[in-house]
Amino acid sequence: MAVMESPAKDARAREFLSVPRKMLINGKWVDSISGKTFAVYNPATGEELAQVAEGDKADIDLAVKAARKAFDSGPWSKTPPNVRGKLLWKLSELIEKHARSFAELETLDNGKALTISGAVDVPGAVEMFQYMAGWATKIEGRTLNLSSPGFHAYTRREPVGVVGQIIPWNFPLLMAAWKLAPALAVGCTVVLKPAEQTPLTALLLGELIQEAGFPDGVVNIVTGFGETAGAALSGHDDVDKVAFTGSTEVGKIILRAASGNLKKVSLELGGKSPNVIFADADIPAAIAGSAMGIFFNQGQVCCAGSRLYVEKKVFDTVVGALSDAAKDIKLAPGMDPSCQMGPLVSQEQLDRVTRMVEGGKKAGAKATVGGEPCGGEGYFYKPTILIDTKPDMEVVKDEIFGPVLTAIPFTDPNDIAVEANNTIYGLAAGVWTRDVSKAHQMAAKIKAGTVWVNCYNVFDSSMPFGGYKQSGIGREMGPDVLELYTETKSVCIGGM
Ligand code: ADP
Question: N or C: which end of the chain has fewer CB within 10 A?
Answer without folding.
Answer: N
